[in-house]
Amino acid sequence: MKGKLAVLAGVGVGYVLGTRAGRGRYEQIREGAQRVWQDPRVAEKRHQAATVAKDQATAAKDVVADKVNEKVHKSDGPHSVSADDLPDAPSYPV
Questions:
Q1: Is 58 in contact with 89 (CB distance < 8 Å)?
Q2: What is the pTM assigned to this prediction?
Q3: Is residue 19 part of a domain?
Q4: pLDDT tens for residues 18-63?
Q5: Is 53 part of a structural domain of the chain?
Q6: Where is region (Disordered) located (predicted)?
Q7: Of the candidates 61, 27, 33, 3, the residue with the CA atom closest to the CA atom of residue 11
Q8: How many domains, in total, are found in the chain?
């Protein structure tokens, strides 16, 4: 219960301070965040993270196909599933 009250108090303080700062301060923060997001070093890390995520999704897809095949072969016979039968990993904008 104390944790919930602390969160509510934090939200309240943030709201009051935010409203006092006004639109100008909001715009400064937003522009700063945009500069960081568009920084070439940050963009490179975003692309690296996307590549790792895609590679891991492909590896997970292969593992799932193998596990499905194990279960199918144990249950009723010669059915098989390949990783190509499974959907591709979704792509998200970076």
A1: yes
A2: 0.47
A3: no
A4: 777 777 877 887 898 899 989 999 999 999 999 999 999 988 988 8
A5: yes
A6: 69-94
A7: 3
A8: 1
